[in-house]
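To illustrate the input format used throughout this study, we show a single complete record. The first block contains the structure-token representation of the backbone; no residue identities are included at this stage. The design step must infer an amino acid for every position from geometry alone.
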């Protein structure tokens, strides 16, 4: 990729990021039974309200397939290196692309 292509790719990524109005952050640790429902409700609600948004699932080391379920439901999953609910929330907020964040 040449310099022009790299600049264009970075500009496109920045434009995508600024178009996201809301990020819903959901901390997760072995939530296979409920994560799909939560992500689906968030995605559907934003769509119904016409809100440009994303769902970020901040995963704290799940071993029950939560990550895959969340991705299939429409979330972007980020792996949180530090254990704990607060750490997951803070990391997820740090990964948010939206102008506003709710948890």
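Output of the design step:
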């Amino acid at each position: 990729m040449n310099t022009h292509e790299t600049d264009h790719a970075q500009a496109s990524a920045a434009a995508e990021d600024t178009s996201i109005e809301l990020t819903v952050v959901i901390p997760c640790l072995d939530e296979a039974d409920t994560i799909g429902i939560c992500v689906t409700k968030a995605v559907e609600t934003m769509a119904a309200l016409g809100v440009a948004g994303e769902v970020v699932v901040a995963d704290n080391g799940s071993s029950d397939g939560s990550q895959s379920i969340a991705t299939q439901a429409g979330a972007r999953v980020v792996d949180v290196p530090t254990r704990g609910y607060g750490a997951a929330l803070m990391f997820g907020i740090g990964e948010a692309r939206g102008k506003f964040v709710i948890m």
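Structural context for interpreting the output: Strands lie at 22-28, 53-59, 76-79, 100-102. The longest strand covers residues 22-28.
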